[in-house]
Amino acid sequence: MKRHVNLTIKQVTSCYADGSLNPRLVTDYALEDSSQLKSLNIFTKLTPETALHQAKESAFRYETKDPKGPLDGIPIAIKDNFCTKDVVTTCASKMLENFVPTYNATVCQRLFNAGAVLLGKTNLDQFGMGSGTVDSIFGPTKNIWSENLKEEGKFRIVGGSSGGSAVAVATGITYAAIGSDTGGSTRNPASYCGVVGFKPTYGLVSRHGLIPLVNSMDVPGILTRKVDDLALILNTIAGPDDLDSTTFKREFKPINLPETADIDIRNVRIGIPKEYHCEGLSDEVLEAWVEIADLLQSEVASVEQVAMQHTSASIFVYSILNQCEVSSNMARYDGIEYGHRADENSSTEELYAKTRSEGFNRVVKTRILTGNYFLLRKNYHDYFEKALKVRRLIKNDFDQVFSEKVDVLLTPTTMTDAPLYSDFVSQSNRDQCAVQDFCTQPANMAGVPAITIPIKLSKKGLPIGLQLMSKNLSEETLLKVAKWIEGKVGFDCLENNQIYNARKD
Question: 275: which of 12, 17, 219, 504 is 20 to 30 A away, CA to CA?
Fold first, then answer.
């Protein structure tokens, strides 16, 4: 294993500063690794010229003792539904396979301003509609933890839709990656790949330049191997943005996490929502859940069971609202202004129809049709309006439990460890999302921050993660508890996986 790969971001930049490492060398290694691990199908587009140029500029800043900050020279990856200037942004779709934005998403621009090095754009389910990173025009992304990476259909899925970003981090190619999270699309793959995945409070991080899926739930997400690294990325990208009216207007106060030994959780109230102990939850995930609850209680943290009675309805409400907003957002892709255009000139209506038929896969088309059905005048009240009302009740569950009983909720992230690809695709996208997103999507419905951290390996040698949620804008408390647990369990993604030994092609 290359000696720099398992360092934290802060350690890497310290090495840059003292000259023991160089941004150009680290970027060269990252590009080399991405080539050697190309069979995992992590990237939709590598950007070696951009990366080497940014790394060269970073190296010069360190030589002149003028680095931009704690991310200067750090290789990162960005999910391919964030606009990147002069770099193709496809959403893993035929519709946008040749779309080259003229601007950077705010998240991307802030990272570049901080000196981060863009290694490439990562694979996803088409337009973010999925929980496996299997529905992409570039093919599925493979989980590095798979027992069998070469036999057709026998590899493990990575989760989705930010699967490429999760594997970029899990393999050590990048130190951090940006994903998006609409119903768990950052936390789900993070759990399956043994990394940290974070969804901030809605409005804390700008959505400008994130190609929308569900405007009322989408947030940029962060994937790293350590909670400290996550905090550095969050400090860089969070805060108000004049280009996004949904962001909070007050300035973001950077989070400075103490050392694990200095984190005091004795006054933190932990809630265990009983509704998350649901059908389909594996014994091993349940066991990990109980172990961490017991660990927290052993440190005098208050741990108690709580009730969130509308949890069981949440996945149905999420599905309805998701498809309604999808049907609205996808209307912009008509073959006229940008994106794929069909070879059709008989009429405008035929052009629209053929363009959309060719440009969208079955999953996207199904969600558009279903959303339009829910929004028909005769169905609007029975589906969309009622779903909005139940969403309010779900949010009220969170508001009540945080205001009256607990500071942080501890739940599973996924029901099981990572499924086999062949088993996953044997069920429909809709059915898989209903299962895979059960524990994660309520946080998006309520807009609260949530994080998943790796806890242990299953009997199959696959990662198991657990999720923490807290009230709006309580990221600091959430990350402190997450870091405390991380320090206690001692899970190391790269050492456990040994990817630079037996598993590298």
Answer: 219
